[in-house]
Amino acid sequence: MKDKVYIMDTTLRDGEQTSGVSFSEAEKLNIAKILLEEVKVDYLEVASARVSEGEMMGAKRVMDWAIGTVYHDKIEILGFVDGSVSLEWIAKAGGKVINLLGKGSLRHVTQQLKKSPDQHLADLKKSIALAQEMKISVNLYLEDWSNGMRNSPEYVNFMLDGLQNEPIRRLMLPDTLGILNPTETFAYCSAMIRNFPKLHFDFHAHNDYDLAVANVDAALRAGIRTVHTTINGLGERAGNAPLSSVVALMNDHLKMSNSINERKLNMASRLVETFSGVHISSNKPIIGENVFTQCSGIHADGDNKDNLYYNDLLPERFGRTRKYALGKTSGKANIAKNLEDMGIRLDPENLKRVTDKVIELADKKESVTSEDLPYILSDVLKSESIFERITLRNYAISHALGLRPMATVCIEMNGELYEEAGSGDGQYDAFMNALRQIYHKLHKQLPSLVNYSVTIPPGGKTDALVETLITWNISDRNFKTRGLDPDQTAAAIKATIKMLNIIESEGQIY
Predict the structure, then answer these.
(1) Contact 197, 168 (CB under 8 A)
(2) Rounded to a whole number, what is the largest CA-CA distance in the chain?
(3) Which of 235, 207, 259 is nearest to 11 (CA)?
(4) Mean pLDDT of 157-181
């Protein structure tokens, strides 16, 4: 195991200790499948014994899937020094591995357990022996190990002296309260490996000082060969070391072998974001929405000339693509990059006019997206006919108390008028249902609506402009359109007509 770094992911156990996060049985199963089959983590901690009936059902659901596969031995459950209670709980769930929670600091033993080190060591040995009888493999957490090394290193050495000949697969060294810095981490992990060379150690980081990944780096440099992570850095308080950042660290800085499939990391992150309800920060390394987006025009210019602003974190490694944002710092190179993606090339004079318009809009704090470019081009170049293939001629929407909202919609497409009516749960829903009637008769498919957000300026009055931003999906591609109007429904309709013209111009409707 010396030449490879192993990953134990604890999203489904420690990650679920994030405030407000609770995964259902089906969600646990789907996350487990993705992490083991697609991302290819080496070990997966899925539950804590004795927590609840729901925790039992979630663990059992994962184990039922894993029984008979190569993954069964890789799935682990946190258990406690409580005689046979945790072990019976794990056996009932179908588990084969217990991550036994021992105490890694003298203070925890004497103040929380009210026991002596000798008593705690004896209790641990009894639990390990019982696990052996039940054919359950044992890993051992030394909870609060980091404080133990700081304040009672003689206790830590006493415990490991007494445990080093026990049938323990891996000894886990947690920075339970996230107190360590990289210098301490390197020193403490080096001491463990030097004093107990026959043992295999894991390192479990917490991010209270925003040092979790840096401490993982130090632990690996010290010789640790298994580290604990969570998807998106979920976990108690400030969370754990994010798997995505740890993988990039191992591959690019440490050049250490591992089994992780980088291209699946973004997919796993989005899945956990959806199930947990904890949104990923847009600037979070590797997986944030903006991390592969260049905003500065000089960066786009440098990329054009020899990829001058690239680093080793190429988005393609993680199943993503590089983007060039449109905003007030955009230069002509940024605009040109976005236009090239649309297959459009402009002469220098027109490119400058379009660039000036983008900067003007962004200076007013209006969001500018690549999907807005056809409309900016249309406005600037006075060539709306190129892009406006579909025109909304008329619509009427009614909403009466006790009755479903109704909408009648008339659009012009390729010189022909099409009109239909529909009802819905709201005014915009009625509009969309009428539009679907038109497209159904034309044997055309509309994209699905992924997200709908409304923004009103702070302190806005009843006549304030409403910005509606809608995310659509078609052919496994997401894109956004924006509508601006004093009326929320009208703003959403404007965003919808933009969507129709974008996909019509791209030939995406079929």
Answers:
(1) no
(2) 88
(3) 235
(4) 98
Q: Which two tokens stand for residue 110?
A: 């004497």
Exactly one of 45, 55, 143, 420 is catalytic; which is it? 143
Q: Tokens for 15? A: 């990650």
Catalytic residue chosen out of the listed positions 13, 170, 225, 320: 13
DSSP 8-state class, residue 240: B
pTM of the predicted protein model: 0.69
Amino acid, res. 128: I
> Which band of pLDDT confidence, cut at 50, 70 and 90, is reported for residue 324?
low
Cβ contact 93:59 at 8 Å: yes
Task: Report pLDDT digits (tens) over 446-464.
Answer: 999 999 988 775 555 565 5
Q: Quick one: CA dihedral 180, 183, 186, 189, positive or negative?
A: negative
pLDDT digits (tens, 9 = 90+) for 4-58: 999 999 999 999 999 999 999 999 999 999 999 999 999 999 999 999 999 999 9
CA distance 312 to 333: 22
What percent of the chain shows pLDDT beyond 90?
A: 66
DSSP letter at 25 equals H
C-alpha pair distances (Å), 25 with each of 6, 56, 63, 64, 462: 26, 9, 11, 12, 45
Interatomic CA distance for residues 149 and 156, integer angstroms: 7
Is 143 a catalytic site residue?
A: yes
Rounded to a whole number, what is the distance in angstroms from the first to the last CA of the chain? 53
Query: Domains in the chain, start-ordered, CATH in brackets?
Result: 6-276 (3.20.20.70), 293-385 (no CATH), 387-505 (3.30.160.270)
Which of 262-276, 333-347, 428-442 has the least mean pLDDT? Answer: 333-347
| Of the listed ranges 106-120, 138-152, 494-508, the one predicted with least confidence | 494-508
User: What 3-state class would DSSP assign to 136?
Assistant: coil
The answer to whether 388 is a known catalytic residue is no
Yes or no: say if 296 and 274 are a contact pair by the CB < 8 Å rule.
no
Alpha-carbon distance of 191 to 196, in angstroms, equals 8
Residue 508 in this model has a pLDDT that exceeds 60: no
Instruction: DSSP for 423-467, please give it.
Output: E-SSHHHHHHHHHHHHHHHTT--PPEEEEEEEE--TT--TT--EE
CA distance 397 to 414: 25
